[in-house]
Task: inverse folding
């Protein structure tokens, strides 16, 4: 029998409590980079709204816009949506309990040409951030665990752009 990951083998490695969070972690940790795209496992971007009680629906719209502008600037002005080599955001949205600040932790998949150009990506994101938003980029080996920390079976805070 081969050593490939089958659905049964994956499910046997996942604990029953908070199964979806564990599946996300396993999926992100086992991503295999292609010749064209790289998943940045050790980096995560945090975008925070400095407005109290900012609705997540509006925040998601802002993040979608930032992703659009980033792809237009770095990939292609018009045809970035059809490009298999576009920059993809894997977003985990949260709202802090004490200050009620909406924020997201973003894991990125980027074209190979941008895998060592994190500062350039961050600079373009900062350019298109709405007023009173902040960006923090961290290079940590626990980026996947930290991004998924508040994900649960009863919480739909994950989105892909």
Result:
């Amino acid at each position: 029998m081969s050593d490939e990951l089958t659905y049964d083998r994956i499910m046997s490695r996942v604990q029953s409590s908070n199964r979806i969070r564990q599946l996300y972690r396993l999926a992100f940790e086992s991503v295999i980079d292609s010749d064209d795209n790289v998943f940045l496992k050790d980096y995560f971007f945090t975008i925070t709204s400095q407005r109290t009680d900012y609705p997540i629906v509006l925040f998601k719209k802002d993040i979608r816009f930032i992703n659009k502008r980033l792809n237009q600037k770095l990939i292609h002005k018009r045809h970035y949506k059809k490009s298999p080599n576009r920059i993809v955001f894997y977003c985990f949205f949260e709202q802090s309990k004490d200050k009620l600040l909406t924020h997201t932790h973003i894991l990125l998949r980027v074209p190979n040409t941008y895998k060592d150009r994190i500062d350039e990506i961050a600079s373009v994101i900062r350019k298109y951030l709405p007023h009173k938003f902040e960006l923090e980029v961290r290079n940590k080996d626990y980026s996947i665990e930290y991004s998924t920390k508040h994900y649960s079976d009863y919480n739909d805070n994950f989105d892909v752009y």
In short: The chain has a mean pLDDT of 85.
